[in-house]
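The following block was generated as part of the benchmark described in Methods. Ligand: nicotinamide-adenine-dinucleotide.
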Amino acid sequence: MRITIVGCGSIGSKLARAADEMAEVKRIYLIDIIPGLAESLASQLKKAIVIEDVEEELYHCDLVIEAASQDAARTILPKVVSRGVDIMIMSVGALVDDDFMSSVSEKAKACEARIFIPSGAVCGLDGLRSSSVGELEEVELVTTKGPRSLSGIQYVIDQGIDVDAVTERTIVYSGPAREAVKLFPKNVNVAATVSLLGIGFDRTKVTVVLDPEIRSNSHELRIKGEFGMMDCHTFNVPSPDNPKTSYLAAMSAISALKRIVRNEWIGI
Ligand SMILES: NC(=O)c1ccc[n+]([C@@H]2O[C@H](COP(=O)([O-])OP(=O)(O)OC[C@H]3O[C@@H](n4cnc5c(N)ncnc54)[C@H](O)[C@@H]3O)[C@@H](O)[C@H]2O)c1
C-alpha cells in the first residue's frame, strides 16, 4: 500500500515513523507547508519521499491521511475522494458543516472512496457505534480541562470567568455540540467525532468543566439508550511534542492505519 501523509507535525510524524515499520506500507509520500519539515522527517525514514501537493502522486496512492488542519482537510477531502482514493481525517472539525459533509459523502460514495475517521483522543466510540443501531436517548460528552487550556477563550471571558482565580470545579458550558464546537474550537475534534457517530450535532450534549487541579484534559462519554447505559472516562496525557494534542490521538491514527493495511477488523 502507498500512503500520503499531509502534515508532518505531532500526529503525522509519529504516524510516518510507525508506517515506515509496517511491512504492508511500501511507499510514504510526505507533505508539509513548513519548509524543510517533511524533508527532515523523510531523511529519517526508509520508505518516504517528499511531494509538494496531494494531487501530485494521487494516481499512485491508496490512502491519504490528513494530519494538518481543518483548512487542509476541507481543501483535500473533495479532491481525494473524487479521484476514488481513500482518506483518513484527523481534523474532524472540518466536517461540522452539514452541507460540506453531505457533499463529500455523496462524492465518496459515487467514486467508491472511503472516509476513515479514527477515534482520536476519546474512548468508548465502539459502544456508541453499536448502541446507535437502536434508539439513543442521551449522548453527553463531558470534557474537563485545566486553566491553561481554557485561558483566552472568548466565551469563557464573556461569562466573567477568570480561569486563574477559579478554586473549584466549575461548569463553563453545557449545551448542544453544534454550539460547543464553535465556542471551544480546541475541543472540536472529539465533539465532532462523537456527534457524527451518534445522534448528530444538535442532540449531542457537551459539557465543559474547568478544574483548577488538573493539567491535562479528560473526556467522559455518557450514553443512555435502548441498549442500557455507558459511562466511559478517558484521562489523556499530552503529546510530548505538542501539548495541545493528546498522545492517544496519534496512537489512534496509527492503530487505524494498522487495521486498514492489515484488513483486521477486531472490535469494530
Ligand atoms: N481527532 C482527534 O481526536 C484529534 C486530536 C488531536 C488533534 N487533532 C487534529 O489533528 C490535526 C494535526 O494535529 P497535530 O497535533 O499533529 O498538529 P501539529 O500542529 O503538531 O502538526 C500539524 C502539521 O500540519 C502542517 N500543515 C498545516 N496545514 C497544512 C497544509 N495545508 N498542508 C500541509 N501541511 C500542513 C503544519 O505545518 C504542521 O507541521 C490538527 O488539526 C488537530 O486539531 C485531532
